[in-house]
Write a structure and sequence with these properties.
0% strand; 192 residues
Length: 192
């Protein structure tokens, strides 16, 4: 077997291994951020819905019917139970508002942490490109996926985060991806 075919064969075997390694690094980076943020600060739990009052049958029996079926018994709550339930409803609404505030804060913090890790991973991947191309590709892809995770988990709460901050994070990520792409494309030999 000529030497040129051996090098080509080695390259064909090495490329999928490098791509699999890069994909594993990328996936593990996202998982590290996703589970790390939950380990550091647990997501807030929604409040428990209050149980409605158990009514009791009316004191006056329902009117008799002429058919084989009796009308269903009407259950009416006692006024004290109704007042307690209405108070529980108001308390529940306040608890929901507190929960939504805590959830917004938690999602904002996860977004900021994942954006910082993503930017650092992309910058690290760009810096490592000349030495460790598979690791570098994994960091760059993982950084992009981590940023995507941060945006998706924040969901509708991104409206609560400052638009200027989101713009700065997006601009930094864009600049790093462009820089990494330029470095990668500039370092590859030209095709003939």
């Amino acid at each position: 077997m000529p030497a040129g075919q051996t090098a080509a064969h080695t390259a064909l075997v090495t490329i999928p291994i490098k791509l699999a390694y890069a994909a594993a690094v990328a996936a593990l980076l996202v998982l590290l951020v996703a589970f790390g943020t939950r380990a550091i600060a647990a997501a807030p739990q929604p409040p428990q819905y209050p149980t409605p009052p158990i009514g009791r049958p009316p004191v006056v029996p329902p009117p008799a019917t002429t058919g084989p079926q009796a009308p269903p018994a009407i259950v009416t709550p006692v006024p004290d139970e109704l007042v307690r339930y209405e108070q529980e409803q108001r308390d529940f609404q306040r608890a929901v508002e507190r929960y939504e505030d805590r959830r917004r804060e938690y999602r904002r913090n996860v977004f900021l942490a994942s954006a910082a890790v993503a930017i650092a991973a992309i910058a690290g991947g760009a810096a490592l490109w000349a030495s460790f191309d598979a690791l570098s590709l994994g960091f760059i892809a993982g950084g992009f996926a981590t940023l995507l995770y941060g945006v998706l988990q924040a969901g509708s709460d991104l409206d609560e985060i400052s638009p200027a901050l989101i713009f700065v994070v997006a601009l930094a990520g864009f600049a790093l991806v462009l820089g990494a792409g330029y470095r990668w494309l500039a370092s590859s030999p030209p095709k003939r």
